[in-house]
């Protein structure tokens, strides 16, 4: 009996040993595959595309966001410079080599794990956004249990550990390997990616890794083959191919986006060939309309809607909108056959937009005018779709790779932000049951939930360690805390907001993220610089209509009126002048104001910027240094917007899958003559209340507002003084006041 049990035991151990060997290879291979997936998923940017993308100004001269901004140098760069080498070239080549070696290793191990293990791994793949994810510890634990993997076998051979390390560092960039901390090197490399000098060209190669040219013998084709060999999504390979073809497209009139942000769109067919087809569509849409009452019920299923007393199929409306937009956009070619006047067709289209997307005619028309017929439809559709959930890593407390690992261990599906333009952003995929706003890492302040577009104004402002900065309308503090992190908790960030209710959230975030260089104030921004000035940099992320974030707050579709836009534009102009006037004319490295909104309307953006240029001739627009975004409008409805307006940037949900945003940066020079009295509020001092929430906040704040009671305060102060004296072993009854001291001196004498 005993002998039988021993034999059984031996058999189990033997099996466990074999399974463990299998399991280790699988883990290494899976992580390596994950890394190669991410790498391959990085956008493909040919040299041509990158050259197109590089703006003449951003980050020139060693990666300075603005002339005058100190160059941020990583340790490696400094050491290399001290040695008189080109800092990044060899590193880039080395890293590319490392990756390609890693890639080869991946293939080897991938092949090695054929059979049972692979079938299991395949079962466990999570497919998110066309990217296959399979590395999380629960899965690994599960596989361990299934395969009888013993804990001793967790000890990996050097080669395997090496493979894992390579895979990890390929997944999360080198910057993540740097130690966090004040003024640390994590920001040194922060913007490496965006710099335009020679070294940075190599950084770009390095970062995106997929080049149409050969890098150390690994071609794009090889990588695609490798993907296919690893059984990875063909869709992705196709996407990579699409990026390639985009790279070679010279005819793009938009500023090129980082590939991956620029959804590959099919080339429009030549208009001439479309006339007949389009007219057929228009006809079909009309006859659909006529027959709609009979068949819409069946066809539409849940998509019909009561309109003017009759049921209308939303699919028909959508089709009609597309056709009308195309005809309007190519009126010269198609208009003659439209069968109605241009203005009637336009009116019909706007009415359809209101019906289909749920806007008031006023706002539908306003946004329609910003984009024009065809792009407007894309904008409206994108504004009905949620943006990816993103988080920003708080580099004051952790590193991106550590946070990613911790969250993956909890079962969160994530990946670095698409496009590689931020090294502190992570995209979180839905599907995991982990509440991303309540993990221990969240509570410990290792990250903040923040929309990717909200990183942009801070990147553009580029605050430096030891500076004195103002965030004029800061609540709830996404940008304040990012500024604080970029400044490494040094210098000062004055975070102001006029809403008392929202200040609570700001304070909470500042405390949770451990921002010790932040001071919070609660005044109307138009009180600056009267109450305080002399800042190196000022961020004005202005109160706005929120037309860029309709996917988050659809109430904007119906609650904004003409008057709101008028008041907002007025307030934004006043705040911007105050922001400019708050900048020190003697700031050594700074002297910048970033004006941003999460709105896409012209009166809240270019019109405000243009007003400031007129009223403050000592400021000029400079490049935002941001790697993507469309240039601001030079003119609109016959109005010209002043010099440098094309340096401002517009971001759209339908183009870059980020919230709609506007970002501009002013360099503030020395005023030629005395600036008139700081623009004093012509609106009531009360913050502008734009919606019910603001009104509630204001009402609560009024209720909460403490009535000061001097007598009670004096009692509390005295009590606390006594306690402190007692703790220090002093006589708590001794009178420490001036009068008491005087009395004691007189008594001693
Ligand atoms: C777009 S939000 C700011 C978001 C913030 N920058 C962030 O990233 O978390 C605009 C803010 O402006 C504030 N605000 C409105 N009127 C203001 C004024 N006159 N002065 C200062 N802040 C104002 C609002 O309370 C609101 O919090």
TrEMBL record:
SAM-dependent MTase RsmB/NOP-type domain segment(s): 379-669
Origin superkingdom: Eukaryota
GO molecular function, one term: rRNA (cytosine-C5-)-methyltransferase activity
Compositional bias ranges of the Acidic residues kind: 131-140, 148-158, 173-225, 246-255, 289-300
One Pfam family linked to the record: Methyltr_RsmB-F
Active site: 598 (nucleophile)
Gene3D superfamilies in the cross-refs: Sun protein, domain 3, Vaccinia Virus protein VP39
GO cellular component annotations of the record: nucleolus
Family matches, as SUPFAM superfamilies: S-adenosyl-L-methionine-dependent methyltransferases (SSF53335)
Biased composition (Basic residues): 109-118
CDD domains: AdoMet_MTases
Skewed-composition ranges (Polar residues): 34-43
UniProt region (Disordered), positions on chain: 1-311, 690-749
Compartment(s) of residence: Nucleus, Nucleolus
Main location (coarse class): nucleus
Residues at which S-adenosyl-L-methionine binds: 473-479, 497, 524, 541
Keywords annotated in UniProt: Methyltransferase, Nucleus, Ribosome biogenesis, RNA-binding, S-adenosyl-L-methionine, Transferase
Compositional bias per record (Basic and acidic residues), positions renumbered to this chain: 1-10, 78-88, 98-108, 119-129, 713-722, 733-749
Family: Belongs to the class I-like SAM-binding methyltransferase superfamily. RsmB/NOP family.
Protein name (record): Nucleolar protein 2
Naturally occurring in which organism (per UniProt): Rhodotorula toruloides (Yeast)
């Amino acid at each position: 009996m005993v002998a039988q049990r021993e034999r059984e035991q031996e058999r189990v151990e033997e099996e466990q040993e074999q399974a463990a060997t299998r399991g280790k290879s699988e883990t290494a291979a899976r992580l390596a595959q994950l890394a190669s997936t991410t790498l391959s998923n990085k956008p493909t940017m040919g040299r041509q595309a990158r050259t197109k993308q590089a703006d003449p100004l951003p980050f020139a001269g060693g990666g300075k966001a603005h002339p005058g901004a100190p160059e941020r140098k990583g340790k490696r760069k400094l050491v290399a410079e001290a040695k008189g080498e080109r800092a990044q070239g060899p590193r880039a080549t080395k890293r590319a080599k490392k990756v390609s070696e890693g890639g080869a290793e991946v293939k080897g191990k991938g092949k090695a794990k054929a059979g049972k293990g692979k079938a299991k791994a395949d079962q466990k793949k999570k497919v998110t956004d066309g990217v296959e994810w399979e590395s999380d510890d629960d899965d690994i634990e599960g596989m361990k249990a299934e395969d009888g993997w013993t804990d001793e076998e967790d000890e990996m051979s050097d080669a395997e550990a090496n493979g894992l390390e390579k895979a990890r560092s390929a997944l999360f960039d080198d910057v993540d390997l740097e130690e966090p901390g004040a003024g640390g090197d994590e920001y040194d490399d922060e913007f490496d990616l965006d710099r335009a000098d020679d070294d940075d060209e190599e950084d770009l190669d390095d970062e995106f890794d997929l080049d149409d040219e050969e890098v150390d013998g690994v071609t794009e084709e090889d990588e695609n083959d490798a993907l296919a060999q690893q059984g990875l999504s063909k869709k992705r390979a196709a996407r990579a191919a699409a990026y390639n073809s985009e790279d070679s497209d010279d005819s793009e009139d938009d500023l090129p986006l980082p590939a991956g942000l620029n959804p590959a769109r099919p080339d429009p067919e030549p208009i001439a060939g479309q006339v007949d087809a389009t007219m057929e569509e228009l006809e079909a849409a009309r006859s659909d309309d006529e027959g709609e009452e009979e068949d819409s019920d069946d066809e539409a299923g849940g998509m019909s809607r009561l309109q003017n007393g009759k049921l209308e199929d939303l699919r028909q409306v959508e089709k009609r909108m597309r056709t009308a937009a195309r005809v309007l956009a190519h009126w010269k070619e198609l208009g003659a056959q439209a069968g109605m006047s241009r203005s009637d067709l336009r009116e019909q289209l706007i009415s359809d937009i209101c019906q289909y997307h749920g806007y008031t005619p006023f706002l539908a028309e306003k946004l329609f005018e910003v984009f024009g017929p065809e792009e407007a439809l894309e904008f409206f559709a994108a504004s009905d779709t949620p943006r990816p959930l993103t988080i920003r890593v708080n580099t004051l407390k952790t590193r991106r790779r550590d946070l990613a690992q911790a969250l993956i261990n909890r079962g969160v599906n994530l990946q670095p932000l698409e496009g590689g333009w931020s090294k502190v952003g992570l995209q979180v995929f839905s599907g995991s049951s982990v509440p991303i706003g309540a993990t221990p890492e969240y509570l410990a302040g290792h990250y903040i939930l923040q929309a990717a577009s909200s990183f942009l104004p801070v990147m553009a402002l580029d605050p430096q360690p030891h500076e004195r900065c103002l965030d004029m309308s800061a609540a709830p503090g996404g940008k304040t805390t990012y500024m604080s992190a970029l400044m490494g908790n040094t210098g000062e960030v004055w975070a102001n907001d006029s809403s008392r209710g929202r200040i609570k959230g700001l304070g909470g975030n500042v405390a949770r993220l451990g921002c010790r260089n932040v001071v919070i104030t609660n005044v109307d921004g138009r009180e600056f610089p009267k109450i305080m000035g002399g800042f190196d940099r000022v961020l004005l992320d202005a109160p706005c209509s929120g037309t860029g974030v309709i996917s988050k707050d659809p109430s904007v579709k119906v609650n904004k009126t003409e008057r709101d836009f008028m008041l907002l534009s007025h307030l934004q102009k006043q705040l911007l002048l105050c922001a400019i006037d708050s900048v020190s004319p003697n700031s050594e490295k700074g002297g910048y104001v970033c004006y941003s909104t999460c709105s896409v309307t012209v009166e809240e953006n270019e019109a405000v910027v243009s007003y400031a240029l007129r009223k403050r001739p000592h400021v000029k627009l400079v490049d935002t240094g941001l790697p993507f975004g469309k240039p601001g409008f030079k003119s609109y409805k016959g109005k010209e917007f002043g010099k440098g307006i094309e340096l401002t940037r517009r971001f759209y949900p339908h183009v870059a899958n980020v919230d709609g945003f506007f970002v501009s940066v002013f360099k503030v020079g020395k005023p030629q003559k005395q600036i008139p009295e700081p623009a004093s509020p012509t609106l009531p001092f009360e913050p502008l209340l734009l919606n019910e929430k603001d009104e509630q906040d204001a009402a609560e704040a009024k209720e909460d507002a403490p009535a000061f009671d001097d007598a009670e305060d004096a009692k509390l102060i005295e009590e606390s003084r006594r306690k402190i004296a007692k703790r220090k072993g002093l006589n708590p009854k001794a009178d420490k006041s001036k009068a008491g001291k005087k009395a004691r001196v007189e008594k001693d004498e």
